[in-house]
From TrEMBL:
Pathway: Metabolic intermediate biosynthesis; chorismate biosynthesis; chorismate from D-erythrose 4-phosphate and phosphoenolpyruvate: step 2/7. CDD domains: DHQS. Its cofactor is Co(2+); Zn(2+); NAD(+). Gene3D superfamilies: 3.40.50.1970, Dehydroquinate synthase-like - alpha domain. SUPFAM superfamilies: Dehydroquinate synthase-like. One of its GO terms (biological process) is aromatic amino acid family biosynthetic process. Catalyzes the conversion of 3-deoxy-D-arabino-heptulosonate 7-phosphate (DAHP) to dehydroquinate (DHQ). This is 3-dehydroquinate synthase. It comes from Rhodopirellula islandica. NAD(+) binds at residues 82-87, 116-120, 140-141, 153, 162.
């Protein structure tokens, strides 16, 4: 049976690109579907810098390397240790040096194979080396498939702030093969569910209704169910990014729902202790508590969100949540405007608003809600 493949377009004028979603097509070498779509997307290419997570070195990264080599493309392969601590200045410097030593030039293409850490890091290496190389994303975790590989946010962390250095740099193509999820550890898979559920809360009420029935089933990883949920998530992200590519009008900031709290949890816990999606789940709960305290929404919203996050087995509480440590980190949030924090808060399922002038005591109470 022929493996299915579907395309979603990210419409950004001359920077538009396709997201291909399939199951099992990357391994089928005859004909090489990946190489064919790659060449259509990037045009002429004789050298690829293949930056991949160590966890996929012997699986999808190897398949891609073989297929590109068969197409007479020279490969420089760079392996990145799994985990958030790799999104660092020192790791980026090491990539730049390898690029220099391997004769990477402006016609080279960077291909990122891995989760959000590898995609963000490789994307920023592509954006910065010789002031910009073409770039292809091959996300291999649920979180990177539904979120970080789409939309062009690239970057690294500083010890005091997540994603503090980076750039907007769109890929030429995103290639999603759900086969990679079959070997993804459950904890990482579940972490990705937070970003899937986020789309239902922020802008797609019908998808939220679908998740109310299907969130718990996704862990079974039925390929058709996965492709549907990943497709809906990517459509949602592509819609928002097309409206506000560089987060200038404020529309794109809705994708940051739960993230003001989440980034502070990740930084204060120590990167990698709480996975990004786990922190987003807890951060969404804090944001919903805050929205209720600000009388923006009915408490039933929190109940519905709690039910779907719980069905996906996501954490809802963080016992170490400490306002005294989190508030200074939150002051570096990229949504801060004229020194004031702004939050993305829901007013109903499927709709959020950007809210400034939030009293600090209400923010502290929202952080404390994570102890309940
Ligand atoms: O793509 C976006 O825009 C998002 O905000 C999506 C987030 O889920 C993602 O974690 C993003 O990297 C956070 O961006 P940041 O600007 O808050 O660092």
């Amino acid at each position: 049976m022929t493996a299915p493949i579907e395309a979603i377009e990210v419409s950004l004028g001359e920077r538009s690109y396709p997201i291909w979603i399939t199951t099992g097509l990357t391994d089928s070498a005859e004909p090489s579907h990946f190489a064919k779509h790659f060449q259509t997307a990037v045009g002429d290419c004789t050298h690829v810098v293949l930056i991949h997570d160590a966890a996929v070195a012997n699986t999808i990264a190897r398949s891609i390397e073989q297929q590109l080599a068969q197409a007479d493309i020279r490969i420089t392969s760079i392996t990145i240790a799994s985990g958030e601590t790799s999104k660092s200045v020192s790791q980026l410097e090491s990539i730049w040096n390898t690029m220099l030593e391997s004769g990477t030039d402006r016609r080279s293409v960077v291909v990122a194979v891995g989760g959000g850490v590898v995609g963000d890091l490789a994307g920023f290496a592509a954006a910065s080396f010789t002031r910009g190389l073409r770039f292809v994303q091959v996300p291999t975790t649920l979180l990177s498939m539904v979120d970080s590989s789409v939309g062009g946010k690239t970057g690294i962390n500083l010890p005091g702030g997540k994603n503090m250095v980076g750039s907007f740099w769109q890929p030429q193509m995103v290639w999603i093969d759900t086969q990679s999820l079959s070997t993804l550890p459950d904890r990482d898979f579940i972490s990705g569910m937070a970003e899937v559920i986020k789309y239902g809360v922020i802008e797609d009420a019908d998808f939220f209704t679908w998740l109310q029935t299907n969130a718990s089933r996704m862990i079974e990883k039925d390929p058709e169910t996965l492709r549907y949920a990943i497709g809906k998530s990517c459509e949602s992200k592509a819609r928002v990014v097309a409206e506000d590519e560089r987060e200038t009008s404020g529309r794109r900031a809705i994708l940051n729902y739960g993230h003001t709290f989440a980034h502070a949890i990740e930084a204060t816990a120590g990167y990698g202790v709480c996975l990004h999606g786990e922190a987003v789940s807890i951060g969404m709960q804090m944001a919903a508590h805050l929205a209720i305290a600000m009388e923006l929404c009915d408490p039933s919203l929190l109940e519905e969100q709690t039910a779907v996050l719980s069905a996906a087995k996501l954490p809802l509480v963080w016992k170490d949540a400490d306002p005294e440590r989190m508030l200074p980190v939150m002051s570096h949030d990229k949504k801060v405007s004229h020194g004031k924090l702004r939050f993305v808060l829901p007013d109903r399922i499927g709709h959020v608003a950007m809210v400034g002038d939030v009293p600090t005591d209400k923010v502290i109470a929202a952080i404390h809600s994570a102890h309940l």
